[in-house]
FAD synthase
Amino acid sequence: MTRVVAQGTFDLLHPGHVHYLTDAATYGDELHAIVARPSNVTHKPKPILDARQRRDMIAALDAVDEAHLGDPEDVFVPIERIDPDVIVLGFDQHHDEATIEAALADRGLDCRVERASGRDPRYDAELLSTGDIVDRVLSRRG
Ligand SMILES: Cc1cc2nc3c(=O)[nH]c(=O)nc-3n(C[C@H](O)[C@H](O)[C@H](O)COP(=O)(O)O)c2cc1C
Ligand SMILES: Nc1ncnc2c1ncn2[C@@H]1O[C@H](COP(=O)(O)OP(=O)(O)OP(=O)(O)O)[C@@H](O)[C@H]1O
């Protein structure tokens, strides 16, 4: 049984998220998805939805076998519990593969790191970015 981990903020779910999780699932038999806590979302505005709601939405996707709340402090706590064979990063995530692999080795975890593919919009109005969805809400309802 090959266990795979994907992780992200997954705020205001859109087809880009579905693509990432579906692609990540192809790397093994069981996909575990970890939802980032607001304390770890430092590179963009904090999520709008509560972490439990974001977890429950990705748990409902076919590709996801188990959805987990991330640890608010140490991002390797859920990884140690899940003990995955592979971590699949999102196509545009800022994390560096070699740094993560070194941190995994330090903790004695035998796990490789891969990178998922990206997906382009299928029609002009399709929004594949939480930030773009928020901008559209503000322009239409703000
Ligand atoms: C292997 C790995 C495990 C992670 N685990 C957690 C976690 O347990 N808790 C958390 O808040 N963030 C965790 N994160 C960090 C967030 O997912 C990270 O901030 C990410 O950049 C958010 O993704 P997004 O900007 O693509 O949505 C983890 C990141 C990696 C690479
Ligand atoms: N179009 C896409 N194709 C493939 N993966 C995507 C796409 N959009 C988002 N993802 C992936 O989904 C994961 C979570 O994305 P995140 O929650 O940061 O959403 P986002 O819509 O990119 O957010 P924002 O627009 O606020 O930066 C990330 O790993 C990201 O790479």
Remarks:
- The chain has a mean pLDDT of 97.
- Strands lie at 3-8, 30-35, 66-69, 86-89, 112-115.
